[in-house]
Amino acid sequence: MAYNRRSRLITQGVARSPNRAMLRAVGFKDDDFDKPIIGVANGHSTLNPCNAGIQPLVDRAVAALEAAGAKPQMFGFPTVTDGIGMGTEAMKYSLVSREVIADAIETSVNGQAMDGALVVGGCDKNMPGGVIALARMNVPGIFVYGGTIKPGRWKGQDLTIVSAFEAVGAYAARKMSEEDFLGIEKNACPTVGACGGQYTANTMSSSFEALGMSLLGSSQMAA
Fold it and tell me: Do 158 and 138 belong together in one domain?
């Protein structure tokens, strides 16, 4: 069976000359039209630390696909994070974003007849959104986790984002000094990556690995 079973519908034959003309503008060469086209969907953005470190993984995935004889095509999807939206009207968009992300990936992959998909995500809703899309499309696909954030440190103690939430209560109750309150805020998230604990993102990544939707040993790596 041809690896480009789907994409050849838009890349092969005289009638598809306009299609090829447009694809040449984004880097396709003559031999690329015979290769399987693999969508590389990713949530890289600077909206939050969960997704701010994804681009290097995307670049490596693209290089690996090219080395394997495929033609990767990158595209993004919208993403928000609960950690920033919680306690505000913005949180109303959180669960909805999962469905929007799944729809966006499915639309891009099926709308351009791609032969497979690789999804790179790093936070609570874009991770399940990506896997929902893979299940719907029923094309060869895999999920790559952007990785978890490393712990912060303040006065010899490890910190996570939960430390900052707990500090809000402690400071409001006058059980914490302003120095410690600000110290925790400024040091809780020292790098990029998903929230550093057994929260939604790391739980999802472990689940995907168990389901066979991501590579063995990839679910608990640091960003």
Answer: no
